[in-house]
Amino acid sequence: MSYFAAAVARGSTGWVASELDLTGAADIDEVVDQLRDVDPDADVALLFVESDDSYLAILRLDQGEDLRVFGSDSVFAEESRIGALLLGDVKAPALEIDEVTNPPAATGDEAAPPPAAGPDVDPVGDPELLADLGVSAHQLLSLCAHDGLLPADVTAEICQVLGCADGVEELRE
């Protein structure tokens, strides 16, 4: 599986972006060390790992500690070594994807909006990991479930909200 791993760290001078190479990482602790090394003094550091235009994993460190993880689909852990490395020990999210893709029917005469996509994904981890940065759990799960959005598109949307889109886009070039 091919992948793209972009780390962004927010310190006193703003966001810094760096591409990480995870091929030699033996465990999640080594990945966390690489993320921490992007800016050891960062208030928050995020790692976006996109794999084969199918899967997205997001890792978050606050103050270099307290790892939180989200994965767009549990299958990523089954299909790839990097997916297993990042998501192997992660549990299901508190919010189910069905709650986002099949919202309750509207009240009154309004028709319920059509679902963004069928719940063909099984997200895992903490969908609230970006909530304090402006991306709610519902938004994150909706992006991951939206038919036609690639992991790169989801990363771009999130980074746009966070204010670090230019740095991540430069890494892609």
Summarize the structure.
By secondary structure, the protein is α+β, with helices and mostly antiparallel strands. It has helices at 28-38, 75-79, 81-87, 97-101, 137-145, 151-162, 165-172; strands at 3-11, 14-19, 44-51, 55-62, 65-71, 124-125. The chain has 7 helices and 6 strands; from the N terminus they run ββαβββαααβααα.
Q: Approximately how much helix is present in the residues?
A: 25-40%
What do the pLDDT scores average to? 87
Number of helices, where a helix is a run of at least 4 consecutive DSSP H or I residues: 7
Sheet with the most strands? 6 strands, antiparallel
Order of helix and strand elements from N to C terminus? EEHEEEHHHEHHH
Indicate the proportion of strand residues.
Answer: 15-25%
Structural class assignment:
alpha+beta
Quickly count the domains.
1
Side by side, the strands of the main sheet go 2-1-3-4-5-6
Number of distinct beta strands:
6
Say what oligomer this is: single chain
Instruction: Outline the low-pLDDT stretches.
Output: 104-118
Report the end-to-end length measured between terminal Cα atoms. 20 Å
How would you sum up this structure, described in words?
There is one protein chain. This protein is an alpha+beta fold and 173 residues long. The protein has one domain (3-92, 120-171). The protein has helices at residues 28-38, 75-79, 81-87, 97-101, 137-145, 151-162, 165-172, and strands at residues 3-11, 14-19, 44-51, 55-62, 65-71, 124-125. A 6-stranded antiparallel β-sheet has the order 2-1-3-4-5-6, with helices on both faces. 33% of the residues lie in helices and 23% in strands. A hairpin with a 2-residue loop joins strand 4 (55-62) and strand 5 (65-71). The model is unreliable at 104-118 (pLDDT under 50). The longest helix has 12 residues, at 151-162. Helix 6 (151-162) packs antiparallel against helix 7.
